[in-house]
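Problem: given the chain below (193 residues), write out its structure.
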Amino acid sequence: MTGLLLVVSGPSGVGKTTIVHRIRERLGGTFSVSATTRPQGPGETNGLDYLFVSPAEFEDMLHRDEFLEHAEVFGRHAYGTPRKPVQESLDRGELIMLDIDVQGAMQVRDHLPDAFMVFILPPSEDELHRRLASRGRDDTEAIERRFAEARREIALATSRNIYDAFIVNDSLDRAVDEACELVTARRSTPPAS
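Solution.
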């Protein structure tokens, strides 16, 4: 099979991370390890969970054009997807996966136009709001902020020609089945160069 970079995006609360993990369980493949300037947390392994780098190291990587995509999150910490390990996985014919936002997906599309981009949608805005609230992680103000951001992200994703497929997560098992079928089909018949 052909190597494939699978980019999965979707708003908070839509289940994208669970879907990506289930795809990996079924189809194999690896997750791309992001570089970050945030401090290493307890139980995290450098090079496995993240590549923890100093702000100066991150800037050097940026200037050497070593990222497929990068962003500063909440004005505090930078995150980026190193290009070299992704390219090495593709050259070996492997499936490599990224779970990133729409802005990052737009950058990846510019660098690797053959990447397979999938956006996960909620069944409805009401259901997304319910999921965000039921996670029990945030207060009301944070939930409303996340919901507003989710609506902006969905609008951006659906108004641009970035994604190859949209999957509605109305049933986790069905969404995973659909994602796996799409990935398998894409690896069997890669796009013409």
